[in-house]
Model the fold of this input.
Amino acid sequence: MALFYQRWVKLSSMKYTKTILTAACLLQLGLYSCRKQEIVKEEKGSTTAVKFAEMKTPQNFKWATNNLIHVQIQPLLNDNRKSVLKIVDASGVVYFKKLHSAKEQFSTSIEVPAHIKTMKVVFAGTQKEFSTSSNKISFNIK
Done:
């Protein structure tokens, strides 16, 4: 026992501290890495597809992630107003903005995310809401 104690005192000196710590870390890493991994088995009534060919999507599913909306602004010929024309979604995100004269006809196309169902056209304090399902917005300046 005395021999073991003498070796321990010798090993625990400052000279061997790095070696002891490295060996302890490697031993700890080795012990924790040998754990078995749990395998979760699926139930027999599960509806997960095994192959890509087995996956089915509904007929009405839309694969597009964005919609192209055609916008047409009808003028008011004897009106000299100029104002900012904005096209925004229901949450207020601006998709189009320009300085527009009320007596000019204007048309453009804008691309919006497919999840947006309504858009608003705002001009000179008036606004009108449109559904994006028809992919067309026609706004008459009043």
